[in-house]
Amino acid sequence: MAFRRRKNTAAIPRTVPAFEHIVTEASDSFLWRLDDYPWERNVWNFHPEYEIHLLRKSSGVALVGDHIGEFGPGYLSIVGGGLPHDWVTSVQPGELIEGRDIVLQFDPQRLRGSAGLLPELRELEPFLERSLRGIVFHGRAALDGAALMERMGTVHGLARFCLFLELVDLLARTDEYELLSSPDFSPALDATSLDIIQRTLTYLFQHFAEDLKLPEAAELAGMSESTFSRFFQKNTGNSFSDHIAKLRLWQACKLLADTDIPITDICFQVGYMNIANFNRAFLRKHRMTPTSYRKLSKQRMTMRA
Q1: In sequence order, what are the beta bridge partners of 54?
Q2: Residues 166, 172, 173, CA angle at the centre, nearest 5°?
Q3: How far is 278 from 284, CA to CA, in rounded Å?
Q4: Cis amide bond preceding 84, omega within 30
Q5: Highest mean pLDDT among 147-161, 198-212, 244-258
Q6: What was the pLDDT predicted at 14?
Q7: Strands across the sheet with 85-88, in order?
Q8: How far is Cα 171 from Cα 140, in angstroms, rounded to an integer?
Q9: DSSP secondary-structure letter at 45?
Q10: What are the phi and psi torsion angles at 69 (to 5°)?
């Protein structure tokens, strides 16, 4: 059975964004769901089930473990059990993006347990291990995987299960992928920590272009500066300053690729106080200057057209 979740809520997290409980129908081996955005589960969350996630519309920031990256339409990823994740799109109050996400969630122990009867399933073990760090797929693998995810919404029962096996086989065999989170990322996965981190991440995403300081974030979390600094590093995998820098550079990349705004103006719009610091940070992150990045982005858009 397919579920469609639609709830026009503001992009503000619930008070306590706790562990997500996945409910699969008795007749299904996995859950397939079409989600609008935002809704109440669009938060920094985790669950023991693996999640294959397709972003069908819009763009934004992908948060997977300690990874901060960009997503756009067609972004296909898998997140292993216990790895916190969220995909954030900037929306206006009351705005709803219908059908932004297709979410597929499955229990890896069902696959492992079935390998005794279906030994071919043992071939998936290296893929399941890789997925614990989160994976994003590229190229033909992403295109074909997205098509399979879409087709699952048109069928049920055994036909859908066959597409699921085809999908995991495709993703397990491809070399068109990138690992996302660091191998040593180990957050404190309790409800209180998740609540504080979710509120903090939401605040930082909404205000990263401003002159944010560690003391105000620590005050928001109700901690001393030193305690908050350690807490933030442990639960996001990034220092406070690195997290802000990654958000600013993500927004800069989006503006460079999608607009003709002068680079100097972009520098100030994303929160840098001088162009020299912006250029150094951009070069360190992307190994090219903002000017080169813009030229390359325009060339790619021309090739796609």
Answers
A1: 76, 102
A2: 90
A3: 10
A4: no
A5: 147-161
A6: 32
A7: 67-71, 60-64, 85-88
A8: 11
A9: B
A10: -145, -175
> With bands split at pLDDT 50, 70 and 90, how would you rate the model's confidence at 9?
very low
Task: Give the integer Cα–Cα distance in Å for 280 and 289.
Answer: 8
pLDDT bracket for residue 302 (50, 70, 90): low
Using alpha carbons, list the distances in angstroms from residue 165 to 61, 157, 171, 199: 29, 13, 10, 37
Q: Quick check: 92 and 110 in contact, CB under 8 A?
A: no
Helices 214-221 & 225-236 angle (0-180, nearest 10): 80
- Within the chain, what is the greatest distance between any pair of CA atoms? 63
The token duo for 28 is 């299904």
pLDDT value at position 189? 75
Q: End-to-end CA distance of the chain: give it in Å, rounded.
A: 38
| Mean pLDDT value across residues 264-279 | 95
What is the rounded average pLDDT for all residues in the chain? 88
pTM of the model: 0.80
The per-residue pLDDT for range 60-92, each reduced to its tens digit, is: 999 999 999 989 999 999 999 999 999 999 888
Structure tokens at 42: 């669009």
Asked whether the bond before 38 is cis by omega within 30 degrees of 0, the reply is yes
The SS3 call for residue 171 is: helix
Are residues 209 and 188 in contact, defined by beta-carbon separation less than 8 angstroms?
no
Q: Tokens 């305690």 appear where?
A: 227
Q: Give CA–CA dist 104/146, Å, rounded.
A: 11
Instruction: Find where tokens 């858009």 sit.
Output: 301
CA distance 102 to 100: 7
